[in-house]
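Notes, p. 3: input format for complexes.
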Amino acid sequence: MGQVTRTTSDTQSHKPLHIADPADAPWWRDAVIYQIYPRSWADSDGDGIGDLPGITARLPYLRDLGVDAIWLSPFYVSPMHDAGYDVADYRNIDPLFGSLGDSDELIATAHELGLKVIVDLVPNHSSSDHEWFKEALAAGPGSTERGRYIFREGKGEHGEEPPNNWPSVFGGDGWTRVVEADGTPGEWYLHIFDTTQPDYDWTNPDVGDEFASILEFWCNRGVDGFRVDVAHGLVKEEGLPDWDGPLQMLDATDTSAEAALPPTEDESARIHETGHGPRPPMWDQEGVHEIYRRWRSLLDEQPSPQRILCAEAWVKPESQLARYVRSDEMHQAFNFDFLDTHWDAERLCEVITTSFRENDAVGAPTTWVLSNHDVVRHASRLGLDQSLPRPNGIAADQAQPDADLGLRRARAATMLMLGLPGSAYLYQGEELGLPESTDMPHESRQDPTFHRTEGKHIGRDGCRVPIPWVRDAPSLGFGPGDATWLPQPDSYGAYAVDQQAGVAGSTLELYRSMLAARRADRLGLGSASWHELSSGDVVAFVNASADGSRETLVVVNLGAEPVSLPEGATVTHWSGDLTADGLVPTDIAVWATV
Ligand code: NOJ
Ligand code: MG
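Output follows (594 residues plus magnesium ion):
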């Protein structure tokens, strides 16, 4: 924290922040991966819910956008209490989305178009509708079947209190008490998320074997990798000790006053012992790494091209996150520190420096990301008061983002991200500059977070609204009819694909041109060094190819004064207009050749 990241000697000597990758680096080291949230991308049958045939039909749009791969949020059989992150059958497709035949078709079509396919793996919990959980309920206390989940006796005279004080990430208790076969109140089971998402007990070998088999199942169907849900949560601290700290997951409340308090005596002792701050007993336990080593060797045995694992792990500090991407574990881990960074040049530089340092130390690429289906879209987030932590959703009666400011910054932020070496994930709709839906009526909300906190946390529906494709069509071209599972705001028509395709300066064309240049110049494999322009409110670095034949200067101006570019620089890409005399104005980014 607070370390100096852009010393004069660094900028003057062009000391590399990050060294270039060889030109023949494996595909995933610089891949741009587009996240499709299947419910909300394209609906083929008019039921208002996106589906696999809808996705397959529109894959050419993604080829033309210029991404390398897609990641699909879960499409498995599910009662949909958490939009599919509650899986009842890992080896089949939910009828809402289609069939196994449809997923085969999707994978084959993507491959024909040169797109790789990453699927979501949800190994921390199943749905309570999963066969295993139903068997566990039926079999009763002490059974092998219960041993696959985390069942415990309650506390109190009659076991009427939960086994410990863990809350659910979605609000409310992290435990639910079951009724035993004889009708009496019985054991409790742990669910770090919704009641309908019981956590597996990963110390039970059945669980590990089952997931190895699920990985093989999807590899055999041709997928190129797995995004691993809650990768930091699978193993819990032995004894399940109480925890009073923040859970640090779906919002950024860890920047709250509470988290900033100095450590207590116990915490200090623990920091001394373990070398890191207090770690919640449900997150980032050492045992998770053994699981990923097993998966890595399983994937490495598959025929080429390499299949990958990407960790969704809300872990701090970055040195700790980098342990998930050691050479015998996962390939990528989302850089949530980057996503969580406010529009502040000093902080951005700090995060970029630390990210390269920690990932390079383990030989992994950095995996940049600005938006996903769990966070307020960055076109809105960056238009909020930057002194406040990132909220979990925005309601109509709360402070509204400044849409123009947010979009201006979002375009610059993406230009920064795509100029950085490494891999990057895009979230559907960000290429349209789509804002968060902030006027959704509460009756429409589906996120369990909203319901479990009685509306205290608005939740994630606002970033999950069906995508606008055509302004003057029912459901804005999302499906054949008017139905959409969440309402589309009136403002969305103006962002539709048909309003932006071929329109110079549109966000869609900006993304297309950045992705084309990034691919042609292999920016994702380049080196990075701070440029002397980088100081105060300016982030500036040079991305150079391994052989030095290409140098791209990336400049983002977060300050009030326009910035002049070095002599001889030729601007190739700009996130917004420059001044009449070619200066870079506030909240604008450029790429230039030098
Ligand atoms: C993280 C997923 O991204 C989120 O959408 C989900 O609710 C939780 N994990 C629980 O699976
Ligand atoms: Mg449908």
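The chain has three domains: 1-19+527-594, 27-124+204-510, 131-190.
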